[in-house]
Amino acid sequence: MQEIDFYLVDAFSESSFGGNPAAVCPLDAWLPDETLLRMAQQHNQSETAFFVCTKGGIELRWFTTLTEVNLCGHATLAAAYVLFNELDYPDSRLHFDTASGRLTVSREGDWMTLDFPACPTQAQTPPPEMLTALGISHYVEARKGRAWVLVLESREQVEAINPDFSAMTPGEHKVAVTARDEGEYDFVSRFFSPGVAVPEDPVTGSAHTMLIPYWSEQLGKTQMFARQVSARGGDVRCELKGDRVRMGGQAALYLKGTVFLRCINLRGTNDAGN
Question: Residue 169's pLDDT is what?
């Protein structure tokens, strides 16, 4: 039996029940991919972050309950929170080696800032089936990068979206819906990805790698303040720096404990045959 530390962190929130929860498990060495996936399924969060500290750096991977993904902003923030606050990482800046390259997280007070590659988008015509599933009959602009971006006229329209998730899969299912805001925030958004078992993601760092360059150009500024207007909701400090985006957020530890992992074979039984 192997004991593994477990943390549940509300990312992009200063308090419990806000932002986007992610499970985080530090590992001494990488376990088989099948085991990591089964652990993520058992945790039953939108993403579980696993990391291994090596002499060369910190390797980080993310799993949903269906598959490994190549980028996850909120689980990266959660992993950084664990390293900074629970594992006493000595510096104010750390680097993760990931499937999306080297990602940097810096800390200043209670805020942590992700430094990710910007994701460009291009104007495209969205599939009618996706618009129907989202209940959208009119949009200002449609673009596509790592996912679809649909620009609506107002925050109220973004908040009113009520998708038919069953109609979004197995077709185009990853989409950010966004609009300019007139109040405290420069822009708002929501993000849906039911095809990887995340019907609506509460706060999505990877979506902001597309939204920050878009809204920077539209608003004529490089520093912005954004709100993801999901039910849980979360604030994101945004900055465009060349071909990189910086996303700042807070995090709150909700739970920590221990995973007692018994070895499993390919048939899914434990090592005692029970």
Answer: 76
Taking alpha carbons only, the member of 39, 40, 38, 60 closest to residue 50 is 60
List the end-to-end C-alpha distance of the chain, in Å, as a whole number.
Answer: 14
- Report the C-alpha gap between 207 and 93 in whole angstroms: 23
* CA pseudo-torsion sign 89, 201, 131, 135: negative
Percentage of the chain modeled with pLDDT above 90: 90
Residue range of the domain that includes 257: 2-110+251-261
Among all residues, which ones are annotated catalytic? 47
Helix, strand, coil tally for the chain in percent (to 5): 20, 40, 35
> Which residues have CB under 8 Å from 186's CB, separation 6+?
180, 215, 219, 221, 224, 225, 226, 238
pLDDT in the model for residue 264: 58
| Residue 195 near residue 170 (C-beta atoms within 8 A) | yes
pTM: 0.90
Please name the residue that has the structure tokens 């069953």: 166
pLDDT at 100: 93
Q: CA angle 158-20-118, nearest 5°?
A: 70
Query: Does residue 90 sit in the same domain as residue 128?
Result: no
Query: What total number of domains does the chain contain?
Result: 2
242: left (phi over 0), alpha (psi -120 to 50) or beta: left
How far, in Å, CA of 131 to CA of 168, rounded?
Answer: 9
Determine contact, residues 216/245, Cβ cutoff 8 Å: no
Rounded to the nearest 10 degrees, what angle do helices 73-81 and 205-219 cross at?
110
117 located within any domain: no
